[in-house]
């Protein structure tokens, strides 16, 4: 016949938490584990496995690690600054192209494609992200425009 | 820990982050020093190879530095760092899978949970070399089990059993309900127990 403790066995998911070393938040869970051989054995088995699967011993890498982190930060900043510079050049070049194009009509991607030589010359062809928004650009048709 | 100008050993992480945010690089350096070993260990649980783990930990600190302004203090700095690292590890694993050809190469589990070779299993820890060999075998099994687990189970195991996360923290890190987090943890722990059963028996 099953004991009353055994009938109230908690989910195994809760027993894992007990095995991990936590005092159960639910006092009745602790009492159950203490009084139920089956759950106590389950917890003990899990506890032993967890004890064996301890984390690897990692030696402190020392200040070399910090220096490597700072080098990464510096590299990232440098790339970021270069990206801003390239985007600025691209924006200026795009504006210049639009000024040179015939006025009073829509400038299509074909028009931009016609001027790819210029982009290539300016070495921004690999940074077309900045031009992605230029699907269609209208030139101001007003007399002052 | 090496003390840095203006930084006390007792200065807490949140203060270090606040100082770093205001441009104090020594404060961030102190934060790196304080957490570097722990983060490498955590990454080891996620990616197995220690060199990769070191790289990922460095990248995590780099990302943290770039995100200092976004740290709102709604979780412990340690949890914040862990989360950055875990995200990097998950991305790293995804890239590794893509490199392998868009499918996951799972390790063969045939040898997991098998009894150790004869002689070792029946030994009674008589000598240190045997103990060392056994310990190496256990570490190897643990690594292979972790590598074979689905990402969330692996993360649950490492964060809970290595880093001492409670259920609520675990659920937050996994991005799921507490009940689901417990299921992930249970499955991972069960898998580990099954694979380590021969070693548990040999210790008895």
List keywords for this structure.
heterodimer, A: 145 residues, mainly alpha, two-stranded antiparallel ribbon, 7 helices, 2 strands, 60% helix, 3% strand, disordered N terminus, B: 204 residues, 68% helix, globular
Report on the structure:
The complex is a heterodimer of chains A (145) and B (204). Chain A has helices at residues 4-7, 12-19, 27-35, 37-52, 63-100, 109-114, 116-121; strands at 106-107, 137-138. By secondary structure, chain A is mainly α. In chain A, strands 1-2 form a two-stranded antiparallel sheet. In chain A, helix 3 (27-35) packs across helix 4. Residues 1-6 and 133-141 of chain A have low confidence and may be disordered. Chain B is built from eight helices and no strands. Chain B is globular and about 55 Å long. Chain B has helices at 13-21, 25-47, 50-66, 77-99, 128-148, 151-162, 167-174, 178-203. By secondary structure, chain B is mainly alpha-helical.
